[in-house]
Each structure stands twice: as C-alpha cells, then as structure tokens.
Amino acid sequence: MSSNNSINKSDIRKMFFRSFMYGASWNYERMQNLGFLYTIKPALKKIYKDSNPEEKAVAMKRHLEFFNTHQSAAPFIIGVTSALEEKEKNEGADTITGIKVGLMGPLAGIGDSLFWLTLVPICFSLGASYSKNGSAFGLFLALILINAINLPIKYFGLKFGYKGGAEFIQESSAKGNLDKITNMAIALGLVLVGGLIPQMVGVNFALEFTQGDLVISIQNLITSLIPGFIPMGLTLAMYKLIRKGKNPVVLIFSMMLISILLAWLGILG
After folding, report:
1. For the whole model, what pTM was predicted?
2. Is Membrane tagged as a keyword (predicted)?
C-alpha cells in the first residue's frame, strides 16, 4: 500500500498540465530552471508534505540550478526526478542532480531531431499545402497534427518516467549500482555542459594586422592555435566571478555594455 506522501495519478495530471507553461519563464541565466521547478512542484509538495518546511525549500532550491532540454522531453526527466525525490529526498541530492543533468543533454538532442527537424517541418508542409490559396485551415491543421503527437508524448513520457524511475531505483539499490550510475551521470552531464560552451558563447575579434599582401586575423590565429579557447576563457572568468558572489544578472548586463563598447571601438566584430 502506498503512503500518503506517494505520488499518485492526480499529481501526475497536475504536473502534465503545468508542463504547458514549462517554457514561459525561460531565462538567459539558467534557462529552463523555473519551468522545471514549476512543473515538478506538485510532486515536491506531496513528497515533503510531512517534513520540515526547510526540507522542501532545500529541494526546491536544488531544482533552481541550470537546466535545459527539449520541452517535449522534459516531462520524462521530471517523472524520473520525481521518483528519485520520492525515494532519496535530500539525502540523495547528488544522485538526483547527477541523473537529472545526465539525461538533459541526450534527450535534448533526440527531441530536437524528432520535433524541430522532423515533426514540425512535416506538419507545417502539410498545412502549407492546404493554405496555398489563402485558407487558414492549413495553419490549424498543422497545429492539430503537432499537438496530437506532442501532448501524448509529454503525458506518457511523464508517467513512464516516474514509473520507470521508481523501478530503476529499486533495482539499482538492490544491486548496489546507484552510486556508480550517479557518478557516470554526473561525468556525462559535465561533459555535455562543457560541450555547449562553444555553441552558446561567441566572441569574434575584428582586429587584423596587414603586412603587404598578408592579412593576419587575431580571431583566426587564436582559433587555429587553441580551438574554443576564447569561449572557454570567458566562461571560466564568469564562473570565477559568480563563485566570488557577483550577481549573474549584473554580469550579463555588464558583458552587454562591454561588448557594445568594444564593437564600437572596432575590437569586436
């Protein structure tokens, strides 16, 4: 028999409906963290119902860390995370964060491939064929087709993620493999986040030196010697400032102002 603190079908439905607003609070600092916490909150409320309020606050703060994946894949991760929270609670914080971060990268790639590169073009191509004469029916058809696939994937992904996550925890705990899997997930998550740096951070130096017919670009010189060095250096500098207690929002606006100034001076392109 399940306890009063166990997640039930009603909680699953609440999280599913909340997932409709998952991307409404996307931000440049931690991307989808607010949407993740908003969606998983019914589960946390049930799990920490009889606990000290500070315990729930700790769990909520944990899910305010950086998170970013495909929105249709997020409910599956939320389901798995809910199962982990139910079993481990704050004592398993490293396990919860490690597996959560480890899943976001692979599922982001799968979601982008299946949805943005496959489903959306197909559905809107079909819709466009009905709208070529100016009819609005094609637009509604495209949206209906997309959501006829998207909504079930979200709901059953959330449900399967919770059920599969609970069974996975029980099997892994019985075999003593959970710590190993956690460490592997943390390592994978760090690699994936590190791999995002060159894609998310871009710095283009406009400085060039001319010697006769020879043109030397500072940007090309640095990139050819140490690929990805500029984004990595800037990211590490920002990380060090944040570790020292600097406000991330202040750092973002400071970087914007510095970038505008350097571009005006001709240093950045």
Report:
1. 0.67
2. yes
